[in-house]
Amino acid sequence: MFSIKFVSVIAAVLALSMAPVGRGVEHQVTVGGPGILKYDPQFVNAAIGDTVLFTFKQKNHTTTQSTFAVPCSPMEGGFDSGFIPVPDDNTAGPFPLARFTVKDTEPVWVYCRQANHCQQGMVFAINPGDKFAAFQATAMGQGTNPASVSPPPPSPPPTSVAPVTVTATVTVSGTQLSTTTYTTNAASATPSVSASIDHKVTVGASNSLIFSPANITANVGDTITFQFVQKNHTVTQSTFANPCTSLSQTSTSGQVGFDSGFMPVANAAATFPTFTIHVNDTSPIWAFCKQTAPVSHCAQGMVFSANAVESGPNNFAAFQEKAKSSSSTSGSGAPSPSNTAANAASASLAISYGGLAVAGVVALMSTMIL
User: Fold this and answer.
1) CA angle at residue 277 from 275 to 278, to 5 degrees?
2) Which runs of E-coded beta strand occur in 236-355?
3) Which of 83, 168, 170, 298 could form a disulfide with 288 if both were Cys (CB 3.0 to 4.6 A apart)?
4) How far is CA 86 from the centre of its chain?
């Protein structure tokens, strides 16, 4: 739903971000820190027009809207900063920021969806009344968070069945920020061992709506590095059955697929962001671009696969045809004027890096470079 915006975005967008944001009070909230799984303060009381500025400190946290009844799961249509990594050696800043604008005085419930941070009490609220303690207690009493990111399990014997983990390393302008591991489908491990290969995939080459190459074969231990070279695209995990919807939204077992978030790149850019996944078994990997402005990139055939079984019905060509038959991308794509509650939520949270406020609303940022 939301994407991390980088400071290399065009000057016009940066200039827009400097515009005044109103006369409300700005509430400062620190997210995490060295050895700290906490929002500080844990709740605020805010009026309409106020803003809540989340400052992300060390480690890798999120600011994700949930509900009072289910604290550790994302609310449908709610805001989500996405994972925002901060290296341990960044002790002086600048730090990434997320700014939420208060639209009404109804309670807003928030949690960190990293691993079991929510179950350890890492929750936050705006205007909770006298219910914050109960909200936090419910979070700490829950089991495994179905929308969290889990660490990789120990490697099993070669003949056993192992969970698939996909490790996503986000690099900005050549600097690695952090590594996050997502749990995906289960499949048989490959017993053979070979030298690993890094497969390079260009996203949006020559101003085209393509992954190049769009279909590859990768072995266990290989990596796949997606380099974003033009416009504003994502690489988001999906399924063969639902090519244009994120795995996180279609899974019935709480699987969380990888998602680079939107990666805006100016035409004259000299450096390009990359997103890397680690292949832990040979089960098929399906992915798409979730950009929907001005048209659904996925429905235009902008999809990717690794280890598709070309001799069977679930091959890459069939996957791409299913994508093209989709009317539009569903899931957490770029907001459009037709979105209602989801669009309102996305427009209320702006993400920035390096202390620069990058755009006033996420909807604008997602569509500035098309």
Assistant:
1) 150
2) 236-237, 263-265, 274-278, 285-288, 303-306, 349-352
3) 298
4) 15
Q: Hey, what amino acid is at 188?
A: S
Look at residue 207 and give its three-state secondary structure: helix
- Angstrom distance (rounded) from CA 166 to CA 184: 7
Looking at the structure, do residues 168 and 315 belong to the same domain, yes or no?
yes
Please write the tens of the pLDDT for every residue from 72-127. 998 887 888 888 888 888 888 888 888 888 999 999 999 998 888 999 999 999 99
Q: How far apart are CA 269 and CA 370, in angstroms?
A: 14
* Same domain (yes/no): 188, 134: no
Specify whether the CB–CB gap between 258 and 283 falls below 8 A: no
Domain membership of residue 155 (yes or no) is no
Judgement on whether residues 45 and 124 belong to the same structural domain of the protein: yes
Give the contacts of 68 (CB within 8 A, at least 6 positions apart).
107, 109, 131, 134, 135, 138
Contact 53, 133 (CB under 8 A): no
| Sequence letter at residue 189 | A
Q: Which CATH number do you get for residue 306? A: 2.60.40.420
The identity of residue 69, as a single letter, is A
Question: CB-based burial of residue 200 (10 Å sphere; 0-12 exposed, 13-18 middle, 19+ buried)?
Answer: middle
Q: What is the pTM of this model?
A: 0.45
Q: In one letter, which amino acid is 105? A: T
302 and 200 part of one domain: yes
From residue 51, how far is each of 119, 165, 266 by CA, in Å? Answer: 27, 37, 30
